[in-house]
Design brief:
Helices cover 23% and strands 36% of the residues. It contains 9 helices and 21 strands. The strands form 4 sheets. It has a 6-stranded mixed β-sheet, sandwiched between helices.
Protein backbone atom coordinates (compact mmCIF):
# COMPACT_ATOMS: atom_id res chain seq x y z
CA UNK A 1 0.00 0.00 0.00
CA UNK A 2 1.84 3.07 -1.23
CA UNK A 3 1.48 6.53 0.29
CA UNK A 4 -1.03 8.67 -1.59
CA UNK A 5 0.76 11.79 -2.78
CA UNK A 6 -2.57 13.51 -3.39
CA UNK A 7 -3.67 13.38 0.26
CA UNK A 8 -4.41 16.85 1.63
CA UNK A 9 -2.81 18.14 4.82
CA UNK A 10 0.57 17.57 6.46
CA UNK A 11 1.70 13.98 6.77
CA UNK A 12 4.49 11.57 7.53
CA UNK A 13 4.97 9.52 4.36
CA UNK A 14 7.45 6.73 3.75
CA UNK A 15 8.15 3.93 1.33
CA UNK A 16 11.25 2.07 2.40
CA UNK A 17 13.20 -1.17 2.29
CA UNK A 18 15.63 -2.29 4.95
CA UNK A 19 17.84 -5.26 4.11
CA UNK A 20 19.53 -7.55 6.64
CA UNK A 21 22.51 -9.71 5.72
CA UNK A 22 21.41 -13.35 5.45
CA UNK A 23 18.03 -12.27 6.81
CA UNK A 24 14.70 -10.79 5.79
CA UNK A 25 13.90 -7.67 3.81
CA UNK A 26 11.54 -5.31 5.59
CA UNK A 27 9.33 -3.31 3.26
CA UNK A 28 6.79 -0.73 4.38
CA UNK A 29 4.88 2.08 2.71
CA UNK A 30 2.47 4.28 4.62
CA UNK A 31 1.13 7.80 4.92
CA UNK A 32 0.25 9.05 8.39
CA UNK A 33 -1.87 12.24 8.63
CA UNK A 34 -0.50 14.68 11.20
CA UNK A 35 -3.45 17.04 11.60
CA UNK A 36 -6.08 14.53 12.81
CA UNK A 37 -6.40 11.11 14.45
CA UNK A 38 -3.36 11.60 16.69
CA UNK A 39 -2.36 7.95 17.27
CA UNK A 40 -1.54 5.51 14.47
CA UNK A 41 -0.77 1.91 15.45
CA UNK A 42 1.66 -0.17 13.40
CA UNK A 43 0.35 -3.67 14.09
CA UNK A 44 1.75 -7.05 13.19
CA UNK A 45 3.26 -10.29 14.47
CA UNK A 46 6.70 -10.50 16.05
CA UNK A 47 9.40 -10.40 13.39
CA UNK A 48 7.32 -8.52 10.82
CA UNK A 49 9.63 -5.50 10.92
CA UNK A 50 7.65 -3.04 13.05
CA UNK A 51 10.59 -1.98 15.22
CA UNK A 52 12.82 -1.72 12.15
CA UNK A 53 10.38 0.76 10.61
CA UNK A 54 10.41 2.81 13.81
CA UNK A 55 14.22 2.85 13.89
CA UNK A 56 14.31 4.01 10.28
CA UNK A 57 11.87 6.83 11.04
CA UNK A 58 13.96 7.88 14.04
CA UNK A 59 17.13 7.85 11.94
CA UNK A 60 18.77 5.05 13.93
CA UNK A 61 18.72 2.74 10.88
CA UNK A 62 19.21 3.73 7.25
CA UNK A 63 17.08 1.93 4.63
CA UNK A 64 18.62 0.65 1.41
CA UNK A 65 15.77 1.95 -0.76
CA UNK A 66 12.96 4.47 -0.71
CA UNK A 67 12.20 7.72 1.08
CA UNK A 68 10.93 9.20 4.34
CA UNK A 69 9.18 12.59 4.31
CA UNK A 70 7.84 14.57 7.25
CA UNK A 71 5.62 17.52 6.35
CA UNK A 72 7.67 19.41 3.75
CA UNK A 73 11.01 17.90 4.80
CA UNK A 74 12.79 14.90 3.30
CA UNK A 75 14.46 12.89 6.06
CA UNK A 76 15.74 10.16 3.77
CA UNK A 77 15.96 9.65 0.02
CA UNK A 78 17.95 6.74 -1.36
CA UNK A 79 17.92 8.21 -4.88
CA UNK A 80 19.75 11.39 -3.80
CA UNK A 81 21.52 9.82 -0.79
CA UNK A 82 19.85 12.41 1.40
CA UNK A 83 19.82 11.59 5.12
CA UNK A 84 18.83 13.79 8.06
CA UNK A 85 20.51 12.58 11.28
CA UNK A 86 18.38 11.63 14.29
CA UNK A 87 19.15 14.75 16.33
CA UNK A 88 17.76 16.99 13.59
CA UNK A 89 14.47 15.13 13.07
CA UNK A 90 12.77 16.28 16.25
CA UNK A 91 11.54 12.77 17.07
CA UNK A 92 10.79 11.42 20.54
CA UNK A 93 11.40 7.70 20.90
CA UNK A 94 10.05 5.56 23.74
CA UNK A 95 11.93 2.26 23.80
CA UNK A 96 10.36 -1.07 24.71
CA UNK A 97 12.55 -1.46 27.82
CA UNK A 98 12.50 2.34 28.54
CA UNK A 99 16.36 2.47 28.68
CA UNK A 100 16.49 4.80 31.69
CA UNK A 101 19.93 5.63 33.08
CA UNK A 102 20.12 3.83 36.45
CA UNK A 103 22.77 6.18 37.90
CA UNK A 104 20.72 9.33 37.18
CA UNK A 105 17.76 10.70 39.07
CA UNK A 106 14.33 10.81 37.49
CA UNK A 107 14.80 14.55 36.92
CA UNK A 108 18.15 13.99 35.18
CA UNK A 109 16.64 11.24 33.03
CA UNK A 110 13.78 13.48 31.92
CA UNK A 111 16.15 16.36 31.19
CA UNK A 112 18.72 14.25 29.33
CA UNK A 113 17.64 15.54 25.91
CA UNK A 114 17.78 19.15 27.11
CA UNK A 115 21.52 19.24 27.86
CA UNK A 116 22.08 22.29 25.62
CA UNK A 117 19.32 24.34 27.21
CA UNK A 118 20.15 26.81 30.00
CA UNK A 119 19.81 25.24 33.44
CA UNK A 120 16.81 27.31 34.52
CA UNK A 121 14.98 26.57 31.27
CA UNK A 122 15.84 22.86 31.53
CA UNK A 123 14.64 22.62 35.13
CA UNK A 124 11.40 24.42 34.31
CA UNK A 125 10.69 22.09 31.40
CA UNK A 126 11.44 18.97 33.47
CA UNK A 127 9.01 20.15 36.15
CA UNK A 128 6.39 21.03 33.54
CA UNK A 129 6.49 17.58 31.93
CA UNK A 130 6.63 15.83 35.30
CA UNK A 131 3.48 17.66 36.40
CA UNK A 132 1.76 16.78 33.14
CA UNK A 133 2.49 13.09 33.81
CA UNK A 134 1.87 13.41 37.58
CA UNK A 135 5.33 12.22 38.60
CA UNK A 136 6.76 15.40 40.16
CA UNK A 137 7.12 13.65 43.53
CA UNK A 138 9.55 11.17 41.91
CA UNK A 139 12.08 13.68 40.55
CA UNK A 140 14.74 13.01 43.21
CA UNK A 141 14.52 9.20 43.02
CA UNK A 142 16.55 6.75 40.93
CA UNK A 143 14.80 4.38 38.45
CA UNK A 144 15.48 1.35 40.69
CA UNK A 145 13.36 2.93 43.46
CA UNK A 146 10.18 3.39 41.43
CA UNK A 147 7.59 0.96 40.06
CA UNK A 148 7.29 -0.33 36.49
CA UNK A 149 4.36 1.95 35.78
CA UNK A 150 6.28 4.94 37.13
CA UNK A 151 9.29 4.05 34.97
CA UNK A 152 6.98 4.00 31.96
CA UNK A 153 5.83 7.54 32.78
CA UNK A 154 9.41 8.71 33.29
CA UNK A 155 10.46 7.30 29.91
CA UNK A 156 7.49 9.02 28.26
CA UNK A 157 8.40 12.28 30.04
CA UNK A 158 11.96 12.04 28.70
CA UNK A 159 10.55 11.60 25.18
CA UNK A 160 8.23 14.61 25.56
CA UNK A 161 10.66 16.99 27.26
CA UNK A 162 12.45 18.21 24.08
CA UNK A 163 9.03 19.04 22.51
CA UNK A 164 9.29 16.52 19.65
CA UNK A 165 7.31 16.94 16.45
CA UNK A 166 6.67 13.19 16.24
CA UNK A 167 6.47 10.57 18.97
CA UNK A 168 7.45 6.94 18.30
CA UNK A 169 6.57 4.26 20.85
CA UNK A 170 7.89 0.70 20.57
CA UNK A 171 5.66 -1.78 22.47
CA UNK A 172 5.23 0.86 25.23
CA UNK A 173 3.44 -1.40 27.74
CA UNK A 174 5.09 -4.77 27.11
CA UNK A 175 7.62 -4.40 29.94
CA UNK A 176 4.84 -4.12 32.54
CA UNK A 177 3.05 -6.88 34.43
CA UNK A 178 -0.52 -7.72 33.40
CA UNK A 179 -2.46 -5.71 36.02
CA UNK A 180 -0.26 -2.62 35.58
CA UNK A 181 -0.57 -2.87 31.80
CA UNK A 182 -4.35 -2.95 32.03
CA UNK A 183 -4.34 0.03 34.39
CA UNK A 184 -2.10 2.17 32.18
CA UNK A 185 -3.66 1.53 28.75
CA UNK A 186 -6.37 4.15 29.15
CA UNK A 187 -4.01 6.56 30.88
CA UNK A 188 -1.42 6.31 28.10
CA UNK A 189 -4.11 6.91 25.48
CA UNK A 190 -5.24 10.04 27.32
CA UNK A 191 -1.66 11.30 27.66
CA UNK A 192 -0.95 10.79 23.95
CA UNK A 193 -4.19 12.49 22.99
CA UNK A 194 -3.57 15.52 25.21
CA UNK A 195 0.11 15.88 24.34
CA UNK A 196 -0.83 17.33 20.96
CA UNK A 197 1.99 15.37 19.30
CA UNK A 198 1.22 12.90 16.48
CA UNK A 199 2.25 9.43 17.59
CA UNK A 200 3.12 6.14 15.91
CA UNK A 201 2.80 3.14 18.24
CA UNK A 202 4.22 -0.31 17.49
CA UNK A 203 2.46 -3.29 19.05
CA UNK A 204 1.43 -6.89 18.39
CA UNK A 205 -1.18 -6.83 21.17
CA UNK A 206 -4.77 -6.55 19.93
CA UNK A 207 -6.16 -5.07 23.17
CA UNK A 208 -3.36 -2.49 23.24
CA UNK A 209 -4.04 -1.52 19.63
CA UNK A 210 -7.75 -1.07 20.31
CA UNK A 211 -7.09 0.96 23.45
CA UNK A 212 -4.42 3.29 22.04
CA UNK A 213 -5.03 3.78 18.34
CA UNK A 214 -7.17 5.88 16.03
CA UNK A 215 -5.80 4.33 12.84
CA UNK A 216 -4.29 0.89 12.31
CA UNK A 217 -1.70 -0.18 9.75
CA UNK A 218 -1.20 -3.95 9.53
CA UNK A 219 2.36 -5.01 8.66
CA UNK A 220 2.69 -8.64 7.58
CA UNK A 221 4.57 -10.76 5.05
CA UNK A 222 6.83 -7.92 4.01
CA UNK A 223 4.33 -5.12 3.42
CA UNK A 224 1.62 -2.92 4.89
CA UNK A 225 -1.51 -4.95 4.06
CA UNK A 226 -4.33 -2.70 5.27
CA UNK A 227 -4.80 0.77 6.75
CA UNK A 228 -7.93 2.23 8.32
CA UNK A 229 -9.75 3.08 11.53
CA UNK A 230 -8.81 0.56 14.24
CA UNK A 231 -12.25 -1.01 14.71
CA UNK A 232 -12.81 -1.16 10.94
CA UNK A 233 -9.62 -3.11 10.29
CA UNK A 234 -10.29 -5.55 13.13
CA UNK A 235 -13.92 -6.12 12.10
CA UNK A 236 -13.41 -6.10 8.33
CA UNK A 237 -9.99 -7.50 7.35
CA UNK A 238 -9.11 -6.94 3.70
CA UNK A 239 -7.70 -10.41 3.10
CA UNK A 240 -6.84 -13.71 4.73
CA UNK A 241 -3.41 -12.55 5.90
CA UNK A 242 -4.88 -9.55 7.73
CA UNK A 243 -7.67 -11.69 9.21
CA UNK A 244 -5.11 -14.02 10.76
CA UNK A 245 -2.84 -11.22 11.95
CA UNK A 246 -5.64 -9.33 13.72
CA UNK A 247 -6.77 -12.52 15.44
CA UNK A 248 -10.04 -13.32 13.71
CA UNK A 249 -10.93 -16.55 15.49
CA UNK A 250 -13.06 -18.08 12.74
CA UNK A 251 -11.63 -18.31 9.22
CA UNK A 252 -13.25 -21.04 7.13
CA UNK A 253 -13.26 -21.93 3.41
CA UNK A 254 -16.54 -20.90 1.78
CA UNK A 255 -18.17 -21.47 -1.59
CA UNK A 256 -20.58 -18.90 -2.96
CA UNK A 257 -23.90 -20.54 -3.86
CA UNK A 258 -25.90 -17.49 -4.98
CA UNK A 259 -26.17 -13.73 -4.71
CA UNK A 260 -29.21 -11.52 -4.22
CA UNK A 261 -29.89 -7.96 -3.05
CA UNK A 262 -26.40 -7.37 -1.66
CA UNK A 263 -26.28 -10.71 0.16
CA UNK A 264 -24.33 -13.85 -0.71
CA UNK A 265 -25.45 -17.35 0.22
CA UNK A 266 -22.31 -19.32 1.00
CA UNK A 267 -21.64 -22.91 1.93
CA UNK A 268 -19.24 -23.37 4.84
CA UNK A 269 -18.66 -27.01 5.69
CA UNK A 270 -22.12 -28.57 5.64
CA UNK A 271 -23.85 -25.31 6.65
CA UNK A 272 -25.17 -22.45 4.56
CA UNK A 273 -24.77 -18.83 5.67
CA UNK A 274 -25.99 -15.47 4.47
CA UNK A 275 -23.23 -12.87 4.34
CA UNK A 276 -22.84 -9.38 2.94
CA UNK A 277 -21.62 -9.60 -0.64
CA UNK A 278 -18.48 -7.45 -0.97
CA UNK A 279 -18.49 -7.86 -4.74
CA UNK A 280 -15.55 -8.84 -6.88
CA UNK A 281 -15.38 -12.39 -5.52
CA UNK A 282 -15.50 -15.54 -7.61
CA UNK A 283 -16.96 -18.81 -6.37
CA UNK A 284 -14.38 -19.50 -3.66
CA UNK A 285 -13.72 -17.34 -0.59
CA UNK A 286 -12.93 -17.42 3.11
CA UNK A 287 -15.62 -16.55 5.63
CA UNK A 288 -14.19 -14.58 8.57
CA UNK A 289 -16.19 -14.22 11.80
CA UNK A 290 -14.98 -12.67 15.04
CA UNK A 291 -15.80 -14.73 18.12
CA UNK A 292 -17.58 -11.84 19.84
CA UNK A 293 -20.01 -11.57 16.91
CA UNK A 294 -21.46 -15.03 17.65
CA UNK A 295 -24.42 -15.06 20.09
CA UNK A 296 -25.54 -18.28 21.77
CA UNK A 297 -29.10 -19.22 22.73
CA UNK A 298 -30.83 -22.43 23.76
CA UNK A 299 -33.58 -22.28 21.12
CA UNK A 300 -34.14 -20.66 17.70
CA UNK A 301 -35.55 -17.14 17.67
CA UNK A 302 -37.70 -15.25 15.21
CA UNK A 303 -36.41 -15.92 11.66
CA UNK A 304 -34.86 -12.95 9.85
CA UNK A 305 -33.01 -12.66 6.56
CA UNK A 306 -30.20 -10.67 8.20
CA UNK A 307 -29.39 -13.33 10.79
CA UNK A 308 -28.06 -16.87 10.56
CA UNK A 309 -29.27 -19.47 13.06
CA UNK A 310 -27.09 -22.53 13.34
CA UNK A 311 -27.92 -25.56 15.44
CA UNK A 312 -24.69 -26.54 17.11
CA UNK A 313 -23.09 -29.08 19.42
CA UNK A 314 -20.68 -27.80 22.04
CA UNK A 315 -17.23 -29.35 21.66
CA UNK A 316 -15.12 -27.51 24.27
CA UNK A 317 -15.70 -24.95 27.02
CA UNK A 318 -12.57 -23.10 28.20
CA UNK A 319 -12.65 -20.32 30.86
CA UNK A 320 -10.48 -17.31 29.95
CA UNK A 321 -10.64 -14.82 32.81
CA UNK A 322 -14.09 -13.17 32.87
CA UNK A 323 -15.02 -14.84 29.56
CA UNK A 324 -15.50 -18.39 28.37
CA UNK A 325 -14.28 -19.61 24.97
CA UNK A 326 -16.73 -22.08 23.46
CA UNK A 327 -15.94 -24.23 20.42
CA UNK A 328 -18.97 -25.42 18.46
CA UNK A 329 -19.66 -27.88 15.67
CA UNK A 330 -22.39 -26.41 13.49
CA UNK A 331 -21.40 -28.03 10.23
CA UNK A 332 -18.03 -26.28 10.57
CA UNK A 333 -15.87 -25.30 13.55
CA UNK A 334 -17.09 -22.07 15.13
CA UNK A 335 -15.54 -20.33 18.15
CA UNK A 336 -17.42 -17.84 20.31
CA UNK A 337 -16.74 -15.90 23.51
CA UNK A 338 -19.44 -15.57 26.16
CA UNK A 339 -19.53 -14.31 29.73
CA UNK A 340 -19.35 -16.78 32.60
CA UNK A 341 -22.93 -15.85 33.50
CA UNK A 342 -24.13 -16.69 29.98
CA UNK A 343 -22.22 -19.98 30.02
CA UNK A 344 -23.90 -20.94 33.29
CA UNK A 345 -27.34 -19.81 32.08
CA UNK A 346 -27.02 -21.87 28.92
CA UNK A 347 -25.55 -24.83 30.82
CA UNK A 348 -22.77 -25.09 28.26
CA UNK A 349 -20.77 -28.31 28.43
CA UNK A 350 -19.16 -30.65 25.91
CA UNK A 351 -21.96 -32.52 24.13
CA UNK A 352 -24.71 -30.03 24.97
CA UNK A 353 -26.76 -28.33 22.25
CA UNK A 354 -27.08 -24.62 21.48
CA UNK A 355 -28.13 -22.26 18.71
CA UNK A 356 -25.47 -19.91 17.30
CA UNK A 357 -26.75 -16.59 15.95
CA UNK A 358 -24.57 -14.68 13.49
CA UNK A 359 -25.67 -11.55 11.64
CA UNK A 360 -24.98 -11.46 7.91
CA UNK A 361 -23.13 -8.17 8.44
CA UNK A 362 -20.74 -9.92 10.85
CA UNK A 363 -19.47 -12.36 8.20
CA UNK A 364 -16.59 -10.92 6.20
CA UNK A 365 -15.87 -12.65 2.87
CA UNK A 366 -12.31 -12.33 1.59
CA UNK A 367 -10.75 -13.79 -1.57
CA UNK A 368 -9.55 -17.40 -1.34
CA UNK A 369 -6.52 -16.53 -3.49
CA UNK A 370 -5.00 -14.37 -0.77
Amino acid sequence: MRPDARRAGPSLAFDLERHFRDGPVVRAALEVPLDAEPVTVLFGPSGSGKTTVLRCLAGLDRPERGFIRFRDETWFDAATRGFVPPQRRGVGLLFQEYALFPHLSVAANIGFGLARAPRAERNARVLEVARFLRIEELLDRRPARISGGQRQRVALARSLAPRPRLLLLDEPLSALDGPTREELRGELRSLLEHSGIPSLVVTHDRVEALALGDRLAVLAEGSVRQVGPVHEVFSAPADLVVARVVGTENVAPASIVSRDAGLALVRVGTAQLLALDPGGLHDEAFACIRAEEVVLETAPGTPTSARNELTAEVRTVSPEGPLVRVTLDCGFRLVTLVTRRSADRLALAPGSRAVALVKASAIRLVPRAS
